[in-house]
Fold:
Amino acid sequence: DTAVSQTPKYLVTQMGNDKSIKCEQNLGHDTMYWYKQDSKKFLKIMFSYNNKELIINETVPNRFSPKSPDKAHLNLHINSLELGDSAVYFCASSLGSGVIPHEQYFGPGTRLTVT
Amino acid sequence: AQKVTQAQTEISVVEKEDVTLDCVYETRDTTYYLFWYKQPPSGELVFLIRRNSFDEQNEISGRYSWNFQKSTSSFNFTITASQVVDSAVYFCALWGTGRRALTFGSGTRLQVQP
Structure:
């Protein structure tokens, strides 16, 4: 059973398009995250949600909008894609409310290429 | 502000050598947590260890060991008798109770040659 799954695994699209990446976890965790990993492997938090409530929203352009329909899902919608959005996006989940950090379980990543 | 520095961009060793990956952190929080994650060539991130700021005991898990020194703000990771399967990018990360998010270092790519 896959603990944290993301779809799609690869996404190639043109500038200006809108796309979504879906994330689901079957671990019963309360907190979910989105990270961006750039071409130099640098990992940065974008958003975190606890029980469908937004906890962290880093300085991410408002073209990025996370949506959490329930605590097992955290989707990422990106409007008006730009070349600089090309990266690997990782979803993760963990126990707890985020005050005391627990181990984060990461999804396999979605490689987004904007042409 | 929080910062994690992994000064070693890439390390190459021959199998069975011991190797130490350095991690230096900065935070103003008195309570914080330190992590190591492994990212093998397949791309997924794998949790290795979590340490809180009040526990300076070193930890050993098989061939892996971690040395936490608050006095030098370091949390170094040693692999003993390295194996080809250890080849990966290793990330050190910091969680401060003020920010409630992981701040990752830039990673160290370890290549273990047969």
Summary: Chain A is about 0% helix and 55% strand. The first strand of chain A starts at residue 4 and ends at 7. The two ends of chain A are 34 Å apart (CA to CA).
